[in-house]
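Entry:
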Amino acid sequence: MKGLVKYDHGPVNMEVRDMPVPEPDSGEVRVEIRAAGICGTDIHIYKDEYPYNPPVIMGHEFSGIVDEVADTDEYRPGDAVTGIPTTVVCGVCRYCVAGQHSLCDSRLSIGSGVHGVFTKYVVMPAWALRRIPEHLDLTIGALSEPLCCCVKAVSIRTSVTAGDVAVVTGPGPIGLLTTQVAKAEGAYVILTGTSEDSERLELGARWADETVDIEEVDLLDLVRDRTQGYGADVVYECSGSAAATRSAIELVRKQGTIMQIGLHGGPFEVDFFPAELKEIDIRTSFAGSLDAWDRTMVMLDQRRIELEPIVSDVVPLTEWENAFHRLLNKEGMKILFEPID
């Protein structure tokens, strides 16, 4: 089978290679990949800003069909599935016991620590799979994983409620999914971006109460106007931009919450003194969790979230270079790969 491999440390160092078809061990399931999404983490790996174990097949967002099972009756060949990227864990630490596998010190995830889904087949432990709702297009189901990250950040790691004013910075796929989840929780959502994000903001208007180009509108004035001068109840920072994280401290109200979802990829400076004076609750959220996955699949089954409008392109794996370059230039939205023979 063909796989997109990060073959060495350093920027790029990627190519499509012939790789052996994996065989499932006891309790594992082999999945035939139908679609796999490029994530911000993949961009960081491309740029050598995120840990990985080369040579490794990249990719962790996927949808597919069960191809073969080994000593498990949880799934059958033909089942439409997606899955949890963190597949290698100790299983006994406090985080694993609580279903927070992404926090296990022994964790390895598909696409970085072990072979991922930018290929034809992947082997997963049965416990890490989830069935895709029947009404959902199989290709679009590949967005279940990024949605799960947003559900964890919004619905589990923060306590946004009806009437809260939430600012979402960064209208990429994570920002758009965060907007939808925050709306589902009852928040008044202000989605922000720059002039480079005009098409993304236009799409975001489908779900957000307001969209703002911060190069044209004074965002702080607008937020104060919408909140009787207090500031946002919660700011969801989805861009991984240092400037956006710094501005979140200014935008959020006293005793409000900043949820950092986007990965920065490197150190940056921030004046923490204003945050201390405002008694801000600053939180982060990394990947998904078992409870977030369960809630994600319920929300999809209830048709609470729209995934299809976020997919801009579905391309064969051979077009990986152009796909990565487009996303680096903020062209397109969510780009999905189809496997090649």
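The first strand starts at residue 2 and ends at 6.
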